[in-house]
From TrEMBL:
CDD domains: cupin_bxe_c0505
Name of the protein this chain belongs to: Cupin 2 conserved barrel domain protein
A family per Pfam: Cupin_2
Source organism per UniProt: Leptothrix cholodnii (strain ATCC 51168 / LMG 8142 / SP-6) (Leptothrix discophora (strain SP-6))
SUPFAM superfamilies, sorted: RmlC-like cupins
Domain Cupin type-2: 50-100
Length: 138
């Protein structure tokens, strides 16, 4: 017996919503959580508001987490390493890595795939100082 379902989600099947993890991003569910019975979530994430404070230092309780940048860029701190993630880049966030997304472009869009789907986000103590976001020029 299979414990996953076939899933085919078209762009018009789901909408970007503002009720995700961060209020300055919008999220579009791709139907994978339902199809896998909660084993994995896949979602598109887009910039909604200009960066002000960023995500804060945190880690995720997840077995698997990748980010594939589709458009634009984002600047992260992974532990004490500043990392520019640009369109076409793929980042595997190892379980428990402390990180902080602190800057991103107005056109930023990434695909996030995480297992399990109901992963937890835990705030952590700062690892190092964070550069200031550049903001969006008007």
């Amino acid at each position: 017996m299979l414990d996953t379902l076939f899933s085919h989600v078209k762009p018009m099947d789901t909408v970007f919503r503002g009720d995700g993890l961060r209020d300055f991003f919008l999220y579009r569910d791709l139907g994978i959580s339902e199809a896998t019975g909660g084993k994995v979530i896949a979602q598109l994430v887009v910039a909604h508001n200009a960066p002000e404070k960023g995500t804060g230092w945190h880690r995720h309780e997840a077995e698997f987490h990748i980010v594939i940048m589709l458009r634009g860029w984002a600047r992260f701190m992974y532990e004490d390493q500043e990392t520019l993630v640009s369109a076409g880049d793929c980042v595997h966030q190892r379980p428990g890595v402390r990180h902080f997304l602190f800057d991103y472009s107005p056109d930023m869009e990434y695909l996030e795939i995480v297992g399990p789907a109901d992963f937890k986000t835990i705030d952590v103590e700062p690892v190092c100082p964070i550069p200031a976001p550049r903001g969006w020029a008007i």
